[in-house]
Design a protein that fits this description.
- By secondary structure, the chain is an alpha+beta fold.
- Helices cover 25% and strands 25% of the residues.
- It is built from four helices and 16 strands.
- A hairpin with a 6-residue loop joins strand 7 and strand 8 (189-194).
- Helix 1 packs across helix 2 (42-55) and helix 3 runs antiparallel to helix 4.
- The longest helix has 22 residues, at 12-33.
- The chain is globular and about 45 Å long.
- The chain binds 2-amino-4-trifluoromethylsulfanyl-butyric acid (MF3) and cobalt (II) ion.
Length: 277
């Protein structure tokens, strides 16, 4: 089947809306880091995200989101702790956060018809040595991957840069089967952006398609200490590492331009790795 054509952001009005949506995602993260601390619960975190979105005139594009085989997504944000890589909910992550926990918050907004979607990882209260190495690896892989998003180069260049850093240099594992995606007026648009170079034909059909000016892409390395496999239970949303090892997730919204990649959520890089100390 031919993949649905991707959309491009070329009109100034669309670009302004995409920038405004991404800006709201960043502001939610900024508001949240002030409140994160040991003892806080996922229910409280999700309420803080909901309140922040409301005060910014945006709504969650995750809440109520439907994917076949799952109930509608129940939370404003994805709240994923330790071995939970992505799609944790305010109901699935039951334990209050403890010192050294790795918390991933993924925020998706709809604002003026456009989507913003970005995730970041926080160490709660203090940072373990393993947490520090994972966070450093995740941030750096995202930074290097974005640098590779050049007009005319194939999409696989993103995966090459990310995989080289995560698996060769850091010795961690990229989670297989999940990846980035186009964003625009809906949350998940083509093309799919794998974090790993394909190893057999058909694994990633769009790998050799070029980055084009105006592509708006949510790119998101998901990294685990010792497994590239995941597990989930039945119709439940949370996706956990198969071996229970710790994981991080970093996601940015990038507009591909003739002048180079423009990270609309770049301010996330200024956030502290450790919060609530
Ligand atoms: N950033 C995640 C993704 O792109 C968030 C999806 S959560 C969902 O898949 F609820 F919307 F599915
Ligand atoms: Co996403």
């Amino acid at each position: 089947m031919e993949a649905r054509a991707h959309m491009t952001v070329t009109h100034a009005q669309d670009e302004a809306a995409a920038v405004a949506a991404a800006e709201r995602v960043v502001k939610v993260h900024l508001a949240l880091v002030e409140k994160l601390r040991p003892g806080i619960t996922a229910i409280e975190i999700d309420r803080l995200v909901g309140d922040a979105l409301e005060s910014l005139g945006a709504t969650s594009c995750f809440l109520g989101y439907r994917v076949r085989g799952h109930p509608p997504y129940p939370s404003h944000a994805c709240i994923s702790v330790n071995d939970c890589v992505v799609h944790g909910t305010h109901l699935s992550e039951k334990a209050p956060l403890a010192e050294g926990d790795l918390l991933k918050v993924d925020v998706g907004v709809r604002h003026r018809g456009f989507i913003g979607d970005a995730a970041w990882t926080y160490s709660i209260g203090s940072q373990t040595e393993l947490g520090r190495r994972l966070q450093q690896c995740g941030r750096e892989s995202l930074r290097r991957g974005i640098e590779a998003m050049r007009v005319g180069r194939p999409l696989v260049e993103w995966a090459r840069a990310v995989q080289e850093h995560v698996e060769r240099e850091c010795g961690f594992h990229l989670v297989r089967g999940l990846g980035g995606h186009g964003i625009g007026r809906s949350l998940h648009e083509p093309p799919f952006i794998s974090n790993v170079v394909p190893t057999y034909p058909g694994e990633w059909n769009e790998a050799w398609k070029p980055f084009e000016a105006g592509m708006l892409l949510a790119v998101e390395p998901m990294i685990a200490v010792s497994s590239s496999e995941t597990r989930s239970e039945g119709r439940e949303w949370p996706i956990r590492t198969a071996d229970g090892s710790l994981s991080v997730h970093y996601e940015a919204d990038v507009l591909v331009t003739p002048q180079g990649p423009r990270n609309l959520t770049a301010e996330l890089f200024d956030l502290p790795d450790v919060v609530g100390r």
